[in-house]
Write a structure and sequence with these properties.
The chain has about 240 residues and is an all-alpha fold. About 80% of the residues lie in helices and about 0% in strands.
Length: about 240
């Protein structure tokens, strides 16, 4: 939140309008619920189910909203969107033979929340990116703080993890800011689908830095993601 405020001042953004503040508040609530459900689902459910269901739902909701609000994109873009959804499913799959709770309910809640956040963000007026993010982060801080108080959950992180947690916050803020700018300069459906390809980056980084094995499913998903990006880029020009 502090970094977003600094960037808003550096970009000389004007104060968000009351409408922008309203949409930002809704985005904060939806995103806070979505990410909390995702973490909970990954903790108690099966990752091989939670991850792809969340990813696809988070992509499909803004795509549907974008088509309703902005009309159908070019045919080649539609092909790219379809390829991207399949790529998210393939890349998000992991070896998961567990017989415990699937976590599909939490995954649906997570996908709905994250997808709704994307739709709310798309309603923010042009010229405002990091100012609304301050409102989003403040809303999420209040929401999560309230949950901690009500549930009396443990919240103090191990001191050694604080730098990594701060880095996650910076990267997440940068991603949200880039998404806002992308929506303002293009179509919601395209921005939502391209941003939903983040599991591809995760798989590649895990392979490079953690030496994790890239399965055939992952390789096929990465190839489809490249094809999807090419189709969307060609159809959007």
């Amino acid at each position: 939140m502090v970094l977003a405020l600094g960037l808003a001042i550096a970009r000389d953004e004007t104060m968000p309008t009351p409408t922008d503040i309203g949409w930002s508040g809704l985005a904060g609530v939806a995103g806070g619920i979505g990410i909390t459900a995702l973490y909970k689902g990954l903790a108690v459910g099966r990752m091989g189910i939670v991850a792809p269901v969340t990813g696809v739902m988070a992509a499909l909701i803004p795509v549907a909203a974008g088509i309703l609000l902005e009309g159908f994109p070019d045919g080649l873009v539609l092909v790219g969107i379809a390829l991207a959804v399949v790529a998210v499913v393939l890349v998000s799959r992991v070896s998961d033979e567990g017989s415990g709770p699937s976590g599909v309910g939490l995954a649906l809640v997570s996908g709905l929340g994250i997808g709704a956040m994307s739709v709310c963000i798309s309603q923010i007026s042009d010229g405002h990116a990091f100012g609304p993010l301050v409102v989003i982060r403040a809303t999420q801080a209040v929401l999560i703080g309230g949950l901690i108080i009500v549930t009396r959950a443990a919240w103090r992180p191990t001191p050694g993890l604080v730098p990594a947690i701060a880095a996650v916050g910076v990267l997440d803020m940068a991603g949200n800011g880039a998404f806002i700018l992308a929506v303002q300069s293009g179509a919601l459906a395209v921005a939502a689908v391209l941003s939903s390809l983040y599991p591809v980056t995760t798989v590649i980084l895990a392979s490079v830095f953690l030496r994790e094995r890239v399965t055939r499913s992952h390789a096929a998903g990465i190839a489809l993601a490249v094809a999807a990006i090419a189709c969307i880029a060609a159809g959007s020009t």
